[in-house]
Amino acid sequence: MSITQIPPTSITPRGQALPESMEDEIQRTTWLDFAAVLLFLVGLFNVIDGVAAISDSKYIVGQVLFSSLHAWGWFFLIWGIIQLVAAFAVYRGASWAVGAALVTAFVNAIAHLSAAKTYPVWSITIVVLDVLIMYGLVVHSGRRSQVSA
Q1: Chain centroid, CA 83 distance in Å
Q2: Is the pLDDT of residue 128 over 90?
Q3: Closest CA to 29 of 130, 134, 147
């Protein structure tokens, strides 16, 4: 196999191929980091949406599935803060963080489907991000420190 046939991600700076276990670890860690960054972004969006709903911002439509716009605002504000904490913990590699992040992404997807009447495109965008987060967490979770060379 020539050097041109080896994917660029599996080449070290000196042109040597990485062991397969290290390649798997790099890909797994990259997906977990990507999921953590997306969860942080979605959590930040939820905090912004929550504050906007609580403060009666004019950019939010007051039509929600049930309850009031203020109740949804408080929910998304608190849920966004929980997501920010979970994202930071996933990024740091805490053992409990993957489960918490999965729960927050799943509930967030359901909540945004419930709030889809206000802004359908925005809600579907957040649901797609939540699905990417769940994929990155479920498929590529595990111990980050488990590298066998």
Answers
A1: 8
A2: yes
A3: 147
> Mean pLDDT over residues 57-86, rounded?
76
Q: Describe the crossing of helices 69-92 and 97-114 by its angle, rounded to 10 degrees.
A: 150
Cβ contact 124:116 at 8 Å: yes
- In the structure encoding, which two tokens stand for residue 39, read together? 């969860």
What the block records as the tokens of 8 is 């660029």
Give strand pairing partners of 17: 11
Domain ranges of the chain: 21-139
Supply the pTM of this predicted model. 0.71
**Cα four-point dihedral sign 64, 54, 44, 58:** positive
The rounded distance, in Å, linking the Cα atoms of 23 and 126 is: 30
* Neighbouring residues of 121: CB distance < 8 A, sequence distance ≥ 6: none
Q: Each residue of 12-58: pLDDT tens digit?
A: 556 566 666 666 556 567 778 888 999 999 999 999 988 887 887 66
Neighbours of 54 (CB within 10 A): 17
